[in-house]
Amino acid sequence: MPLRPQRPCRAQGCRSLHRNANGYCDGHADLAAEQAKAWATRKGSGRGGRPWRRIRERILKRDQYLCRCDDCTGLGRIREAHEVDHILALAHGGTDDDDNLRAINRDCHKAKTQRESKSIKK
Ligand SMILES: [Zn+2]
Ligand SMILES: [Zn+2]
User: Fold this and answer.
1) Residue 1 lies in a domain
2) Cα(18) to centroid(ligand 2), Å
3) Ligand 1: distance of its center to the CA of 21 in Å?
């Protein structure tokens, strides 16, 4: 397997080169972790600080780790679920309640999000 090219660390003023996927050199791994956390909370904005990871686990378990998206349920297709989807998107006024959540396959989720972002169009 070819090595990835070395890239400069994303930390300000740091000139170390690294091959880490997170964009930071080994010395700045803590910064990378912070960055990831910041992204996670930004993504989770509007979720009122509820422990999303635990909700996610619960919903996945409830739905037996099978995708429950409209496409799959409509077609009777069985796909593994990796994520949890808001049936009514938060952007459309959906909530974090269990009955607005369902397990979804990553690809199905992507397709659905794409459809949604088109329909939201600003
Ligand atoms: Zn660094
Ligand atoms: Zn699906």
Assistant:
1) no
2) 37
3) 13
